[in-house]
Amino acid sequence: MTSPASPRHPGAGSLPVIAPQGEFDYGTVPWLQEQIDTAANKYGGVILDAGGITFIDSTVLTLILMTHQRTHLRIANLPARLIHVFGVYGIDHVLNLYPTVDAARTA
C-alpha cells in the first residue's frame, strides 16, 4: 500500500523531495512516476527520499533508471534491503545515492 507524497520544495535553488511510503510495483508505479515527473519537469530534478519504501519491483528500477537518464535524480535514505537490490543489479554505482535528504540537498 502506498500513501500520497506530494513534492515538498524547501526553497529556491533546491530540488523538491518526494517521500513515498509503502510498496511499489507494476500497479503503483504510474502514481510514483507522475509524482516524480511533475517535480522534475517543474524544478529540473528531484530528490527521492526512499526511507519509507518497503518493496520495489523491476518496473520501479526501470522508472528510477529512466528518470536518472533524463533529469537530475538524487536518492536519499535508501533502506538496506534496497541497497542490496541496487547492488545486485550494479546500479548503485550509476545512481546518485545519499545517506540522508540533507546530504542530497547539499550535494
UniProtKB/TrEMBL annotation:
Species of the source: Streptomyces microflavus (Streptomyces lipmanii)
InterPro entries recorded: STAS_dom, STAS_dom_sf
Domain of life: Bacteria
Keyword Protein biosynthesis: no
Domain STAS: 17-107
Keyword entries, A-Z: Plasmid
Pfam hit, one: STAS
Keyword Cytoplasm: no
Protein name, per record: STAS domain-containing protein
